[in-house]
Amino acid sequence: MDFKQKRGKGLNGLTSSYQRARLVSIFVCICSLVYHSAICIFFYAIDLKPMFYYNFVSITIFTLILIFVPRLKSFVFVYNIGLLEVIVHQIMADYYLGSYSSFHSFILLMGLLPFLIFENKKRYALPITALSSLLYIYFSCRNIEAHAQVTAGTLFGIRCMNITITVFIILFVVLIYTRVVYRIEYYLKNHSDSLENEIKMAAIIQQNFFRQEIENIKKYEVGYFSRPMVGVSGDLYDFYKTGEKLDGLGVFDVSGHGISSGLVTMLVKNIIHQEFYNQPDVELWEIVNKINDRVIEEKGEIQNYLTGILVRLYENKFELVDAGHPAPILYKKKTGECSFVQLGEKAVGVIGIAGFPVYYESLYYDFEDGDELILFSDGVIDIKNEKDEYFGKERLLEAAKLNIEKSAAEQVSFIANSIYSFCGTREQNDDLTIIVLKK
């Protein structure tokens, strides 16, 4: 963003780089006018005409700069004029008053100003500062005697005045930027509080949007746990039911985190729910194909995609379609076997990427009384502890086996506690969702 775009923006003007540069430029010009007016009178009084005439020219230069600064879009030209004025002034002051007068302190000041005036133009600021620093070192190392007849007391007074005004300008600039930092911190805190409240509200809306009554479902027992990394979750879980009859369920994971992913889940939830019931006699893989087409069309330019598993329940079996999602766990009561479902090798692709070839496959599994199906998002197995170790599939499977005979709600609670015990103090790095379906 250039200076023109920055004009008039920011908090009280000070947080705009243009406004800061203008304020610093105006203040430096005013200080220069006051200084050159005083020194001009002084040189006239001691009859040092070359310095008097040059300082009169300096007054004219800084007056013109002060008039035009508020109208300028860039300060490069006026800064170069100011720098040239200071260098010429230094050369003349060294010749007539000697090195002791410390006029080179203004060169040091001009070397500091580029980083304040040209915040967005570091390529310009760096060489100017380097040049000013070299000139300052050069003039500091010189030891030139005064060619004009000036008393030691006068030179000492000039030296003190030069150093004082340089320090004063630097301190003023420091105060400006201290004020800027304070205002930015104040703004960010208020903005953060406001954003946090909005995220909390968005999370409540999303939770209410996802909430379903599943306690009175016939033939099945359901337990679920979902916790977002931030207030709004990119995980989507849903139960498809007709009255007290559970027809199916699904777990989906939208790419990314935060509000954008959360908004996509709300869009996708309706699409999946509609397509699940639009063609009840069509195999599930065809429905997921239709879901993919609609998600691509309706999300438009949004870059998020999603993975997921969609399940349709029958009398003694279920149909499952995987779209790039981790395989669920299936427990068989008769055999006592508890393992990850073997997904089809032909299935390829996620949901929601335009131009990406996909192939979804319907897989059928027996599902009898006492059997269980455990669905989860990838955040469950990808979560890490302080040692940077993944919770992983093996730990998840072990946690599932330990409480397989308990209720679905108790199993979900145990798995969630196992995950957080494993993580310790490490923060959650993804959304977590677990569903236990027990027949």
From TrEMBL:
Ranges for domain PPM-type phosphatase: 217-439
SMART domains: PP2C_SIG
Domain of life (superkingdom): Bacteria
Keyword Transmembrane helix in record: yes
GO molecular function list: phosphatase activity
TM stretches of this protein: 21-46, 52-69, 76-93, 99-117, 124-141, 161-182
Keywords recorded for this protein, A-Z: Hydrolase, Membrane, Transmembrane, Transmembrane helix
Pfam families membership: SpoIIE
Keyword Cytoplasm: no
Listed InterPro entries: Bact_Sigma-Reg, PPM-type-like_dom_sf, PPM-type_phosphatase-like_dom
PANTHER family referenced in this protein's UniProt entry, alphabetically: STAGE II SPORULATION PROTEIN E, STAGE II SPORULATION PROTEIN E-RELATED
Protein name per Swiss-Prot or TrEMBL: Serine phosphatase RsbU, regulator of sigma subunit
